[in-house]
Amino acid sequence: MKKLNLFILALTLMVLSSCAAVGGIFKAGAAVGIIAVVVVILVIIWLISLFRGRSN
Length: 56
What we know:
The protein is built from 1 helix and no strands. The chain is an all-alpha fold.
């Protein structure tokens, strides 16, 4: 019985740590995605201002 409790405890610790790792990966992915969107918007604004400057 003691071995079973130790196995369940070890299994629980592995499952919880993997959930934390996956959560960290998704948080990093979300941050990179937000930064990428901001960069794309800034490039679009820069291109629009570049073309407006040429026409004047």
